[in-house]
Amino acid sequence: MRFILKILCWNTDDAVWMHWSQVVTVGISLFRVETLEEMSQALTATPSEYEYCFMYLGNESFSKDVEDVAKFCSKFPNQKKVVFPNQLSQSAALRLFSVGVNGQCAPYIGKEQLSLVLSVIDSGEIWGGRAFIQQLIQQSARPEITSNNALEHLSDRELSVAICISRGLSNKQIALELEITERTVKAHLTSTFKKTNTKDRLALALLIQTQNLVH
């Protein structure tokens, strides 16, 4: 009996979906869902059914999608996950790799490259793509810039909320963990964004992670 590799795909773009269907090799079956909630439900119902999760990140709500994927990763830490962002963002890539994404590829990836990506991930490695790796090399060549000062003015509770954000937790989950109300969480976030000069949850999460405050 031939083994079929099943991949669960969150993809809302018909053109990209058609391309994926054309570049997968024999022995791979793709199953499409249009929301991350559907993907979560499918994995919860049959946790061993799918070897991989493919996730397409479009332009319309990119930052939100990145954070939603981070939450998904915390819920399914052992699932192999590959993201296909429609825009290059080093900060988003760092965020996603930090929460357990196994690979990042261009949406219109070629057939041979996709096979290579799966092979690399199967061997236990991470696939970042040439552009992302080049960005990391350039970044590592620059003098390290610390941003400890950005965190010095946070209260203990604000810092706790920020660390929870970097772990991909929702406001509701943070409220439960810290035993405070969601309204209080939102108030702490508003204050924290202002004090750290960050514009959203993604930027705040990256700031926390650069300080090695998440383990």
UniProtKB/TrEMBL annotation:
One of its GO terms (molecular function) is DNA binding. InterPro entries: Sig_transdc_resp-reg_C-effctor (IPR016032), Tscrpt_reg_LuxR_C (IPR000792). Keywords: DNA-binding, Transcription, Transcription regulation. One of its GO terms (biological process) is regulation of DNA-templated transcription. PROSITE patterns: HTH_LUXR_1, HTH_LUXR_2. CDD domains: LuxR_C_like. Transmembrane segments: none annotated. This is DNA-binding NarL/FixJ family response regulator. The lineage of its organism: Bacteria, Pseudomonadati, Pseudomonadota, Gammaproteobacteria, Oceanospirillales.
